[in-house]
Amino acid sequence: MSAETIKKPSVLFVCVHNAGRSQMAAAFLTTLSDGAIEVRSAGSQPADKVNPAAVEAMAELGIDMSAEIPKVLTTEAVKESDVVITMGCGDECPYFPGKRYEDWVLEDPAGQGVAAVRPIRDEIKTRIEALIASLVPAAK
């Protein structure tokens, strides 16, 4: 297989509102994977906007999420992803055989201030680093 035909792994992050945890996870994966992984995020009941405390917490690390908007979870998004990571959406996520599913139990940052969001953000970053290590062979 030539380098052009090798498909990038793709990851879909899902939480109910697609406003906090899944948005932070997607932003971390996009930033830390340097484009080696295709990233999607969605919610079963998307909020009107991304959680401002999550945007602020990520901005503290130099990651700008201010332009992100919550997206609705579609069957197609799940079908097109190699890894589906849920964050508290339970049975609302469609299941397809052959996909890698993980459920990350993380506190919901909804309605919390930035001080309460920081530890959630930091735990997500640690999990993202491990996820990257599992998906991208160490080429460096």
Please tell me about this protein's structure.
The chain has four helices and four strands, in the order E-H-E-H-H-E-E-H. It is globular. By secondary structure, it is an alpha/beta fold. The model has no long low-confidence stretch (mean pLDDT 90). Strand 1, helix 1 and strand 2 form a beta-alpha-beta unit. A four-stranded parallel β-sheet has the order 2-1-3-4, covered by helices on one side.
Number of strands: 4
Order of adjacent strands in the largest pleated sheet: 2-1-3-4
The amount of helix comes to 25-40%
Specify Rg, calculated over alpha carbons: 15 Å
Largest sheet, if any? 4 strands, parallel
Ends distance: 20 Å
| Count of DSSP-assigned helices | 4
